[in-house]
Design a protein that fits this description.
The protein is 27% helix and 26% strand. It is built from six helices and twelve strands. The strands form three sheets. The protein has an eight-stranded mixed sheet with strand order 7-2-3-9-12-11-10-8. It has a two-stranded antiparallel sheet with strand order 1-4. Strand 5 and strand 6 (98-102) form a beta hairpin. The protein is extended and about 65 Å long. The N and C termini lie far apart (60 Å).
């Protein structure tokens, strides 16, 4: 159970500040440094996340009456009293209201002996590991001039053999299997999902073959796809909600007045049973008008 308090005090943490500060630290320096090792070849490396949420709009939770920030603090679920950081411990439910309690030292003891060495254990062919196992990407680069040659040897050896390396590493307080993939002058390190995190597609994808489309439908659809095929541009995946939020915030800064809510998004017309050929022909006709 967590409760909020009006003033920031010792042992209390703002969730926003924690995430924001972590993003700022990662932006200014690598968040991990250690060694890359393959057999007897070793070099110093550093790693940074390949993605960021630094530009995403974050909000504090505020007290409407006072205008002050509120902060999060853990409280005892039964007594309701605040719990000091020193009294927090991990608990695994074993039935009813009983838990197995584990200290941080016990959890750390089952992790890898070294959290600062990427020791490549084996290699697999490029493409053999399905996309669904890929989790979080990171950029890996040599950390000093001395190790640049060794880094390049490991990188290019994977590139020339069309393989990727597999290792284990402790990141974000958890041990992960990681995949090392040559990319440009560096290496991308992907954390891989755990086996129990990937669902069996047989439980969710159609179990029987869907009807085969006719040649005429496919021909029309190919024309539609051709008309909508363009070079990749990251602008197409910009977040429109973030843009609208920024506009509201900027306007509020100028006026300090509340703005009316955005108009509701129009819902598509009811009913989705259509003639496929008619829909394809209409789509193709519409595409031709847009290009003219």
């Amino acid at each position: 159970m967590r409760q909020t308090a009006g003033n920031l005090s010792s042992g209390q943490t703002s969730e926003f500040s924690t995430l924001h500060d972590r993003e700022q630290v990662m932006a200014t320096r690598p968040f991990w440094a250690g060694h890359l090792k393959l057999s007897l070849v070793t070099c110093a490396v550093s790693m940074s996340p390949a993605t960021t949420e630094a530009d995403r709009i974050h909000f504090h939770t505020m007290n409407r009456r006072t205008g002050h920030r509120v902060v999060v603090q853990y409280a005892d679920a039964v007594t309701g009293k605040p719990v000091a950081d020193d009294d927090l411990v991990k608990g695994y439910p074993r039935g009813g209201d009983r838990y197995v309690l584990l200290e941080d030292e016990e959890l750390d003891a089952v992790a890898l002996e070294s959290t600062h060495t990427i020791d490549i254990e084996c290699f697999v062919d490029v493409g053999e590991i399905s996309w669904i196992w890929y989790d979080t990407p990171h950029y890996l680069m040599p950390d000093d001039g001395i190790g640049e040659e060794a880094f390049a040897v490991i990188r290019d050896a994977m590139r020339h053999t069309d393989t990727v390396g597999i290792a284990r590493l402790v990141l974000y307080r958890r041990e992960h299997a990681v995949l090392l993939e040559p990319r440009g002058n560096g290496i991308v390190v992907w954390t891989l999902r755990y086996g129990n995190e990937v669902r069996d597609p047989a439980d969710y994808l159609p179990s029987e073959n869907l009807p085969e489309p006719g040649r005429e439908e496919l021909a029309l659809l190919r024309k539609i796809i051709d008309g909508h095929t363009h070079p990749w541009n990251p602008d197409v995946i910009r977040d429109p909600v973030q843009t609208r939020l920024k506009g509201i915030i900027d306007a509020r800064k100028r006026t300090r007045k509340r703005k009316p809510a955005a108009p509701p998004v129009e819902s598509p017309a009811e009913g989705n049973v259509v003639n496929i050929m008619d829909a394809l022909k209409a789509s193709l006709k519409s595409s031709g008008k847009n290009r003219s």
